[in-house]
Design a protein that fits this description.
By secondary structure, this protein is mainly alpha-helical. It contains eleven helices and no strands. The protein has helices spanning 3-23, 31-38, 42-49, 52-72, 80-97, 99-107, 119-134, 142-163, 168-183, 190-204, 211-226.
């Protein structure tokens, strides 16, 4: 068998497994069924993927490739908080459109184990929260803010998949609650909450005051909030 032939066989096995996962969200796939669909024997599948977990991780990688391709198709707004909103909506939309991939990517939990592929979108998310933190718009560390957004985003998406029903009103409400929590606009301290709301609005609409004035106002508001 040539190298190209081996590559083709590996892709065909991966295609068959991905299709079965897409057709039966949350269902266990049979390795024998995958082999039968491709017309190969079990040793061939083991040769390429090692075991069932290896095959599932390869399918998971493909799911993340699809997910990231869709995210990268959206241009940045230039505002990290707005990009968090847009990223949240894109995350939910992907899960709804691809429940088989999504439940494999985020729904199967093994204690102490995190698939390497999950780190790719997480890095993008942390990049946004780090940018927001650099602008003084977060009241929690950037890493905590990213975790807050991610876990609530996953929870909302899985709920819609489990119920097989879209609920964008709920998604927006949870999204805004998560953003309010990390930006301090939901603070019980009224004066501080007002300052964070002003800080958030100024940075989200820099055209209102101008770049230099917005930076100056942001510095003053941060100083007041910290006092």
């Amino acid at each position: 068998m040539t190298v190209d032939g081996r590559g083709d066989t590996r892709v065909r096995i991966l295609d068959a497994a991905a299709q079965m996962i897409a057709d039966g969200p949350g269902e266990e796939i049979s390795l024998r069924a995958v082999c039968a669909a491709v017309g190969v024997k079990m040793p061939t599948l083991y040769h390429f993927f090692g075991n069932k977990q290896g095959l599932l991780e390869a399918v998971m990688d493909r799911g993340f490739d699809l997910y990231l391709a869709e995210k990268e198709a959206h241009e940045s707004s230039g505002d990290p908080i707005q990009d968090l909103r847009d990223g949240w909506d894109a995350h939910v939309a992907f899960g709804i459109a691809n429940p088989g991939f999504y439940t494999l990517m985020y729904g199967k939990v093994v204690p102490g184990y995190s698939p390497a592929a999950q780190s790719r979108p997480s890095q993008i998310l942390r990049g946004l929260t780090e940018k927001a933190a650099a602008q003084g718009r977060l009241v929690v560390p950037a890493e905590q803010a990213a975790a807050h957004i991610l876990v609530t985003n996953i929870g909302v998406t899985l709920r819609m998949i489990v119920l097989a029903q879209e609920d964008w009103e709920l998604s927006r409400a949870v999204r805004e609650g998560a953003i309010a929590a990390i930006t301090g606009t939901a603070s019980s301290n009224a004066p501080r909450s007002v300052m964070h709301q002003a800080l958030e609005y100024a940075n989200a609409h820099p055209e209102a005051l101008g770049q230099e004035e917005t930076a100056m106002l942001s510095a003053w508001l941060r100083r007041l909030s910290e006092s």
